[in-house]
UniProtKB/TrEMBL annotation:
Keywords: NAD, NADP, Oxidoreductase. This is Hydroxyphenylpyruvate reductase. It comes from the Eukaryota. The lineage of its organism: Eukaryota, Viridiplantae, Streptophyta, Embryophyta, Tracheophyta. GO terms for molecular function: NAD binding; oxidoreductase activity, acting on the CH-OH group of donors, NAD or NADP as acceptor. It comes from Solanum tuberosum (Potato). It holds the Pfam family 2-Hacid_dh_C. PANTHER family: 2-HYDROXYACID DEHYDROGENASE-RELATED (PTHR10996), HYDROXYPHENYLPYRUVATE REDUCTASE-LIKE (PTHR10996:SF233). Residues 30-175 form the D-isomer specific 2-hydroxyacid dehydrogenase NAD-binding domain.
Length: 207
């Protein structure tokens, strides 16, 4: 996006096509034999996907809290000004923010320690959001209760030690792989191309 902006090339996104399916995608695993209902859910990043997760979790009577760059005025969810405070006060921590220099390793040793041996870390954002070496070590030592991951720090490489852990679910970031979502993506691409060649604003501009 930075190169596009510097070169004055328009860039677009498909923000809403994946929102529904990404937050719904849960694999069949012993990790999810824990009762989800009533669990305290903390969300890092309360954007489109974060909000979608929060709304569904509410249906299971889960108290919702979140961390974001600033407190959201249009929500009643409990806000924590630091990720450590959020992790201390939740049982399931979901990473759903954008990757920036500031959010790289936003889940570090201190956050993992705060989440604790009964806590579950879910990363559906980007691999570098999590200090992967520290996470693997915590899972092996029992300092972290479990993890659900569909992104990894050095993709396509996945730490070998994760494959043998029964409290870990691994996926290759495929939650948007439905016919409906891919059709919506294609529609947006076509719509953006038509808008570009007609000298109209893009439907989903990024830069």
């Amino acid at each position: 996006m930075k190169l596009c902006s510097e070169s004055k090339v328009q860039g677009s996104d498909e923000p809403d096509t994946t929102r529904l399916h990404v937050h719904q995608h849960l694999p069949d695993s012993s990790l999810f034999l824990l009762q989800f209902s009533g669990k305290r859910v903390g969300i890092i990043g309360l954007g489109r996907i974060g909000l979608a997760i929060a709304k569904r979790a509410e249906a299971f009577d889960c108290p919702i809290s979140y961390y974001a760059r600033s407190e959201k005025a249009n929500t009643n969810y409990n806000y924590y000004p630091t990720v450590v405070e959020l992790a201390t006060n939740c049982e399931i921590l979901v990473v759903a923010c954008a990757l920036t220099p500031e959010t790289r390793y936003i889940v570090n040793r201190e956050v993992i320690y705060a989440l604790g041996p009964k806590g579950i870390l879910i990363n559906i954002g980007r691999g570098p959001h999590v200090d992967e070496k520290e996470m693997v070590s915590a899972l092996l030592d029992g300092r972290l209760g479990g993890a659900g991951l569909d992104v990894f720090e050095n993709e396509p490489e996945v730490p070998d030690k994760l494959f043998g852990l029964e409290n870990v679910v691994l996926l290759p970031h495929v939650a948007s792989g439905t016919e409906e979502t891919r059709e919506s993506m294609a529609d947006i691409v076509i719509g953006n191309l038509e808008a570009h060649f007609q000298n109209k604003p893009l439907l989903t501009p990024v830069v």
